[in-house]
Structures are given as C-alpha cells and as structure tokens.
Design brief:
This protein is of the alpha+beta class and about 425 residues long. It has helices spanning about 5-10, 55-65, 95-100, 110, 140-150, 155-160, 170-180, 195-205, 215-230, 230-235, 290, 370-375, and strands at about 40, 45-50, 70, 75-80, 85, 115-120, 125, 135, 190-195, 240-250, 255-260, 265-270, 275, 285-290, 295-305, 305-315, 320-325, 340-345, 350, 355-365, 385-390, 395-400, 405-410, 415-425. Helix 5 (about 140-150) crosses helix 9 and helix 7 packs antiparallel against helix 8.
C-alpha cells in the first residue's frame, strides 16, 4: 500500500471544510470559555475543549456528526469520538495546509525570495506580506505598527527563521505568530486577524493600547518585547541610531552635550508656509521633508521648554524611522487640532552621504463620522490609520486601510497625512 492509499483510508477527511476555518481568533472553547486543551472542529470551525468523554469536543462530534479535529497546542489531528490520532505520514495536502495556517514554518532560502505570488483556498491571488492585517475592534493604530515591523527584514527574519519564539512569554509568541502568518504562502484566505494578540495585550499590557498613537504603541511594544525576550535587542538594533544633543546658552555656547540613542527621529511640522487650495475653501499647510530634516544638521536651533538645543545625527541605523509630529497630547481635541500639513518628499534621499529609499509610509485620516457618544464626551474626531508599502516584486505601492487595499501611485504619496516613514539604507 503506498502513501496515497494510506491517506484515502482515513475516514471523514472529505468532510473537512477549509472555508469554515479561522485560526486567527483567541483560542478559547466556545462552550466552556476555557483556554485549556482547545481543539478546532475542521468541519464547522468551532473551538471546543478536550476530547475525553463528555467534553465539549467529544459531545460535538457525537451530536453534530463532525469527526475531524485539530488540537491547537500540538497541531495534531484526531478522529472523534474514537480519539484516534492521525499519523503525520497520512496527512494529505489539506491537513498540511491547515497545520501551516495554525503555525507556519519557514526555511531561510525561501524567506530570501519573499514576497512571492500566492493563492488562497478560494483561488484569490496575493503577495505574502502584502495582505490586510486587522482586528475586529478596529485598533488600526496598532495594526499598522505590526505591519511596519513585519516589513523590516532583520526583525521579520528573526521571528520567521531566527529563533523559536514559542518558548518565550505569550506576548513574544503571539507577536511572532502574527508575523509568520503575515508572510505565509498557504493562507486559507488572504488576510490575517490580530484579535488574539491584541486581546492578550489589552488584558496583560493595557497601557500599550491607551494612547492610540502608532508612535507611542511602536516604542512601547518594542520595550515590552525586549523585556520579555532580551535576545530580541540585537534584532531591533537595525532601527537604532544615535544623535549628538547639545544645550546652547544665550551666547551660543554649548553648556551640555550628550550622545543619545534613538529609535525614531521626530520632525516638527511648521504652522506657516501655506498655500490656498483651488478646489476647496480651506487652507492647506505644505512643507518638504528636506527642510524638516535640517533639525538634525547640527546647526539649526530648536527650543525645547526653556532650553535651546541643537541636534546632529551621529550614527544612522540600517532602517531609519521618521515621525512627523502632528498631535498635541495636551490638547482636549488632538485630532481636530492636529497639524494637517502636507509633506512633500522624494522616495530616495541622501543623509550624511548615505543613500536611503522609502519602503513604508504610515498615514492618517480624519474620520468623517463619529459616534454620538464620542462627540458628546470629547467633541473630537476619530483617527483612521493606514499604511503604504512598496512591493519590490512588482515595483508598485499598495495602500492598506483595515481590510481595504488599493494601488497607490508613487507620485501621489505626499498627498496623504504622513505620520511615520521607514527608510532603508542602500548598500
């Protein structure tokens, strides 16, 4: 008997319904609400606890005549109510795809070729890494940061092939799992939900989600990940640089000088240099990135509190993160009163004689409608966050807002409210 005969000999495999499955949700039994020993019915997609007699999964198999289950913790497949385990040698392509959707694995040689063109179970094509990543609670400020980190190769590769994150704290494990799913070539459907990760963060690290600002979430998430897995610090060094910070007195003399590390450089948007839009009756602020970067040329003076400072970039990272300061955290209406300047920028720049290319652009929109409750409490607008990514395989820019995707023309990227950019150093 050959291997294919063994596969066909397993009963009930034909009842597996891949289109009913969703492995991105929190692993909790739909009956007992327990997180322990959770299985998924591969016929209807329900999460159920246990396989012993009288357990929710056992009862479900008897009552609903559904017999193929997978245990999340081990990715092993069972036939219930018999409790028979399906041996790996008997897995068909469907079971292999399901196992890979629960916990994808990679080889370094394959990762170096990413992104590649893929197809999901509904025959929809997608490029891995260039798919919607969102959650049911619309915490898009967090999702754009996860996507941004997922597209930094040294960080991505650490979680895909560099280390076994399953051995660490659940925060590290779940974050790594999201990145591995984001780059999967075998998705059941071409999107990834972050509900399980963000639900865990909301319970165990609630302060990370309080501010709803991508920059704050980025810095807080990095610190939390390093605190739980110090080995990650080396991977995150690719986004770390240093600046020379100088305090200046009224006579222009340096009174204090420090070499400070940075993860992202903040650029201050001006409130002058305006032009009138010909199409709408409102003032649009405009500036350009090159002028804003002069803040770090070692000559321009910046008033911080009551202190005059000068900044100079002392060491550039391999991946430079720029933050455009739009929101006043002390404002009662930070969204309504934000700086709305349009920032023009090229997609390639030279900093300290080093060439950089733009690979990611986090952008902001003001929600046009608000809930009556929010308007009563704050009288402020809501923010909507998206991210624009350059796909090197196609040479095209793609824009993601939640589960919505559209192609973006490179020459029109500046028309959006840029908030965070990621620039890659060229060799």
């Amino acid at each position: 008997m050959n291997r294919n005969d063994n596969v066909r000999a397993i009963p009930f495999l034909s009842t597996v319904n891949q289109k009913a499955l969703n492995f991105d949700l929190e692993k909790v039994c739909s009956v007992s609400l327990s997180h322990l020993n959770v299985y998924c019915c591969l016929v209807c997609g329900k999460y159920l606890q246990g396989r012993e007699p009288n357990s929710p999964a056992f009862s479900h198999s008897v009552n609903e005549n559904h017999h193929i289950f997978v245990r999340f913790q081990t990715q092993r497949f069972y036939i219930l109510p018999e409790g028979k385990i399906i041996k790996p040698v008997d897995y068909n392509e469907v079971l292999k795809t399901i196992r890979d959707n629960i916990s994808p694995t990679y080889e370094p040689e394959a990762v170096r070729l990413f992104p590649v063109n893929c197809t999901d179970v509904s025959s929809h094509t997608y490029y891995n890494g260039f798919i919607p990543l969102y959650d049911s609670s619309q915490r898009d400020f967090a999702n754009v940061v996860i996507v941004m980190l997922s597209h930094i190769p040294p960080i991505r590769d650490t979680f895909l092939v560099g280390m076994d994150t399953d051995k660490f704290d659940p925060l590290v494990k779940l974050f790594g799992l999201i990145l591995r799913k984001h780059w999967s070539k075998n998705l059941l459907r071409a999107h990834v939900l972050t509900d399980e990760l963000l639900s865990y963060i909301s319970i165990n690290y609630p302060k990370l989600l309080e501010n709803k600002d991508p920059r704050v979430f980025l810095l807080s998430l990095l610190n939390a990940l390093i605190s739980k897995c110090p080995q990650l610090k080396q991977s995150f060094d690719c986004i770390k640089g240093r600046i020379d910070s100088q305090d200046i007195d009224d006579d222009g003399k340096i009174t204090k000088r420090r070499l400070l590390p940075f993860t992202c450089l903040t650029l201050d948007l001006p409130e002058d240099s305006v032009f009138k839009s010909s199409s709408v009756d409102e003032t649009i602020l405009q500036t350009n990135m090159e002028d804003l970067m002069k803040k770090y040329d070692g000559e321009q003076e910046t008033l911080v509190g009551n202190t005059i400072k000068r900044y100079r970039i002392a060491e550039l990272p391999d991946y430079l993160i720029l933050h455009y300061h739009r929101f006043d955290p002390n404002s009662k209406q930070p969204v309504k009163n934000r700086k709305r300047a349009i920032v023009t920028f090229p997609t390639s720049i030279k900093i300290l004689d080093v060439d950089f290319v733009l690979i990611e652009n986090v952008v902001h929109k003001q929600e046009t409608k608000n809930s009556p409750l929010k308007k009563i409490i704050t009288d402020d607008y809501s923010s909507k966050w998206g991210i624009q990514l350059n796909n090197k395989s196609t040479g095209r820019w793609m824009e993601f807002y939640g589960n919505h995707i559209k192609q973006k023309d490179e020459e029109f990227l500046f028309l959006d409210e840029t908030y965070i950019q990621l620039w890659k150093k060229q060799n």
